[in-house]
User: What shape does this take?
Amino acid sequence: MLKKWVIGNWKMHGSLAENKALIDGIRAELPALDARAGMVVCPVFPYIPQLKQITAGSGIGVGAQDISEFTKGAYTGEVAGPMLKDVGVEYVIVGHSERRTFHGEHNEQIARKAKAVIDTGLIPVVCIGESLEERQANQTEAVLTAQLDALFAVVGTDNANIILAYEPRWAIGTGVAATPDMIQAVHSFVRAYLTKRSAAVAGLPILYGGSMKGSNAASIVTLPNVDGGLIGSAALNAAEFVAIYKALVASVA
Ligand code: PEP
Assistant: This one.
């Protein structure tokens, strides 16, 4: 699996026309991806087939924003891993803070969802991160440890096909990214945690997410142990998204 990634979380945005314009814009600004850095877009479920079609041949991967922890059955409104795989999904975001906040998802459930992704043969993008209150109470490392402990208790530590995204909850959608010092400290902490757990997970990509945009991307993706970004708002703008991708490619050049 690639080590460097820029992943766009489109959240509940888009339309057939807007999606097409966005992908056309990305492809116009970036005729070819760099072999060292992956690009993925995660639209809402109904647009996945459209995205598979309009990204064909571009190298841009398509991901989903959620998954059911179950494979089929009486779970109204849920979407199972095999269904996602059926329509060509390759990546699935789990544990996004908006799922935690608005849908009450907790560490153990998120771990089960990550396992559902893995069991389907797809790659989970697992979000971890602290709230502002937790940071102010010096609980950041304890919160991240609990989130990672819960994850690995369910998925085990022999799987190298997992992408982690450190997303401080207070930096998501606020326009205020964490400072490079904060990001650096957390990513070093997470890398040390992974290294202690096993050789297989020691090198997992650790993305940063939270108000990353073209203008601050270089100051973030050049930090040690930052392997790219999970991008919200800026992923809806072709020029911004491509600028972040180019900053990531420049950081590995
Ligand atoms: C996100 O939702 O994962 C995210 C990082 O959002 P934003 O870039 O808008 O802060």
Observations:
- The mean pLDDT is 97.
- The radius of gyration is 17 Å.
